[in-house]
Amino acid sequence: MDFSEIEAKMDKTISVLQENFAEVRAGRANPAILNKVKVNYYGVETPISQVAGISVPEARLIVIQPWDMGILKEIEKAILASDIGITPNNDGKVLRLAFPELNEERRKEIVKDIKKMAEESKVGIRSLRRDGLDVAKKEQKDGNITEDDLRNAENEIQKLTDKKIEKIDELLATKEKEIMNI
To answer: Pick from 10, 71, 90, 117: most CB atoms within 10 A?
Structure first.
C-alpha cells in the first residue's frame, strides 16, 4: 500500500499551520501578517506585496513603500480595514506600521490562540489517519491485501501520524517560546 498520498496531505496540514503561525503577531515586525491584506489596485484586489516594497528596518517596524504613489491611500485603507490591529502612519511617501510591546495578558491570549490552531491541525492529521485506515480496510475487504498487510498498513499509518503530531508539537513549542520570551 502506498502512503505517499496520506503523507503529502499531512505535510500540507503542517504547512498551513506554519503559515498561520507566521501570521500571528508576536510583538515583532513580520511582513507575513500582510499576506492576507488585499488592496484595490485599479479595480483588482491585489496583495500589498505586489504593489509595494515591504521592509523591516527595525524589530518592531514594517515600512511599506508603494511603487505607484497614487495607491498609498488605498494601502492605508486596506490595512485599516484588515484585522491586524495596527494603525499605519502615513508620511506621504511610505506607510509605517509600528508594533507595540506585548503585555503578559496579550501574550497568554496569543499562546491560547496558537494552541487552538495546533489542536485543529492535529485533528486534521487524525482525520487523514482515519481516512487512510478506511482505505486499507476496504482493500482488505475487497481481497486486495491480506490481514497481515492490513495490520502493517495500520502500523505504518500510525507511525506517520505520530511523527506528524510530534512535528506540530515542536512547532507549537517553538512559537510559544518565541511569544513568551519577546
So the answer is: 10
Contacts of 33 by beta carbon, 8 Å cutoff, 6+ apart: 23, 25, 84
- Measure CA 97 to chain center: 21
Phi, psi of 47 (to 5 degrees): -60, 145
Q: What is the pLDDT along the chain (182 residues), one digit of tens a residue?
A: 678 899 999 999 999 998 888 777 666 677 877 878 888 888 888 888 888 898 888 878 889 998 888 888 888 888 888 877 778 888 888 889 887 777 788 788 888 889 999 999 999 999 999 999 999 899 888 888 888 988 999 999 999 999 999 999 999 998 888 887 76
